Every structure is written in structure tokens, then in C-alpha cells.
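$ fold --in a.seq
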Amino acid sequence: LTSLTYSKALGDVLDNLSAGATGGFAIFPLTNLNNRLDYGPEAFDQKLRLVNSFSYQLPIGRGQRFANGGFMGQVLEKWSVNGLVQMNTGPAMTITGTNNANPAPNGGGNTRGNCLAPTPTQGPITAWFNTSVYSGTTAYTYGNCGVGTLHGPGINNWDFSAFKKFSFTESRYLEL
């Protein structure tokens, strides 16, 4: 069973309940004067997602293609393997900085950082992107980095299992 999803989630709503945030953390728009500055990939945006699950009974043992009889046939018969593979790209992330523009009530919230160069995402998780291409903002400025301009690391997860069935009667068996 395989499913592949290719998608893009765009919006100008700042969602404080997705991507690990909690409802108690307040996220404010960059400015109430221009909502288009908050338009971009949402925090839950994942471009690609592949999920594959499988179950396969090995063709070994009595009445099967391989090792149809003998001691090895009895030892190797009635085995099945199962697996689940999940791969997806990482979520969209927005580079934020200290609130120098004061866009939120009581000085709360964050503003965006300044992007000095394009940011390639590669390498190990401890150095996923180059921090030297970003800088803080000056007083009363918002920063020029857009929403969701960086995608975090994705997931590549493999689960595997093997089962052996021991029959006692036609309708009773033990599975290990």
C-alpha cells in the first residue's frame, strides 16, 4: 500500500497551534497595515510525503515454491515480513528576530530577520542552514525575510517486523 502526497499550504494566518507551538504562545501579525507581508508557506506545509506499507509471506515450506519438504522446509516455513516506510520533507520555517519594530501590543511577538543571501538547506541536523546569511533588524524595521522561506529537515523512518507462525491444529496457532 503506497501513498504519495505533493502539496503546498499557503496562507497569511499565523497559526500558534501547529509545528510544536502551544496555545499560550502569542503570535501577532507583522503589521496590521499589510497582511500580504505574512503570506507564504504555513508552518505545517510539507511539499512531499511518501508512506509505504507492506506485508509479505515468504514462499518457503510445504506447498510453497522453495524448500517444499525436509528439515529446512519445516524450519523456514510460515515466515512473513512486514514494514512501514515514511518519508517527507521538512516543515516550512520563518526566520525571526528580536522585536525592534514593536508590531505587537506591549512589545510582544517577533519580527523577521534580514536575509543577506539565499539559504541552501543541506548537511547534518546540527548545521542544517548557514546562519551567517541572516542578520538582526535595526530599530523600527520589520526585516526582509519572507514567511516560510526555509524548510527544516524531513523524516526518513523505516519500521520492519518478522513473524513466524507455529500451527498446532488447523484453526489454532501461535505467532511469534
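$ fold --in b.seq
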Amino acid sequence: PTIAVAVGKMLVDLGRQAVDTAAKFESLAVSFEVLAGGAQAGQLLTNQIIELASKTPLTTEALSDGARTLLSFGESADEVVNDLKLLGDITGGDAQKMQSLTLAFAQVGSTGRLTGQDLMQMVNVGFNPLEIMSQKTKKSMAQLKKEMSEGKITFNDVKQAMIDATSEGGRFYGMMDKQSQTLEGRLSTLADTWQLVSKAIGEEFLPAAKDAVDYLIK
């Protein structure tokens, strides 16, 4: 009887966790539906983020936070996942660094140009777009800083620097792939995989849970 009670409690806890997980993913899809401009776009973005999380050290939660930041600053939903990959590689899958870099990147996208404050935020997490531009254009850092102060370093310039830095031969090329092979990266992937299992289970019970809540409300 004691074992049966313990197993029963475990199943109840599992069911509660599964429903909670499914509810969180449902809320995530709804928030993306609003920010991305439609149910189809929101669901597509949700699925893309889940897939990206399953292959990288970044969790679904960290990627979702980044996506919301980009969308809130006016980025197109079509660009979000590709930009998250760039940001993830540059920060090596570090959620805290990625949050800071994503905010700075979104701010540059919103204003259309790089400012000294945005540059400082990027440098603080280990990425200096002017350094990448200097290597490619052969312009001095002083010249590029002068151009920045004149508002001549555009969002497209910054994004191209990110692409160059994460492409083959760049400093951050394949960084998330490498990090995903570490123990920490594999544990993150395991956690996301389990979350998807929990989500699938919870989705089966979600309609019944909603009906029960509606009944309690009445």
C-alpha cells in the first residue's frame, strides 16, 4: 500500500507538471501570435524556437525571452530565429550574456544606427562590431568610432559584422555547436527534451483541465 501511494503521488505530480508545461507553451504561442501578427506566424515561431533549443545549449525559455525582445523592438518574425542563432553563437550559449546582447542589438535595430551606449553594452559581453568592421574594411578603430559618432554605422553594418564573426573563419564560428557537446550543453538539451515530453503529455490533459477550472470558476 505504501508503494502504491508513493507511485500514485508520483503520477499525480507528473500529471500536474505536464499540464503546467503545456499551459506555458500555450501562453508562449499566444504571446508570439500577438507579437508576430497572427496565429500561424506565432505557432511557426514557437515551433522554430523549440527546435533550436533542442539543438543548442540555450533553453526554450532563454530563446523565447530573446525572441520577445526582438519582436517588441519591431523586428520581423521572419528574421528572429536567424538572429537568435547569431546572438547565441557570439555569446556561446550563455543565457545572461545573450539577454544583454539581444537588447543592445534590438536597440540598434530600433534606431537604425549604432550608438556609443549600444557599443558599450556589446563590448561588455565580449563582442565589438567595430573591431570586426576594422578587420574587414581596413579602417582604423578611431575612424570607425568617428563614423559612429556621426551616425554613419547602421544596423545593417552591425548585423553584417555579426554574420562575419559567426561565419566560417570568424571568431565565433560554430560556437553553440561546440558548447552543445559539453556536459553542461548536453544537460541543457536533456532538460529541453524532457520538457517536450512533458508538453506532449500535458496537451492531452489540457482541455480537461480547462473544463475543470471553468467549473470551479462557476
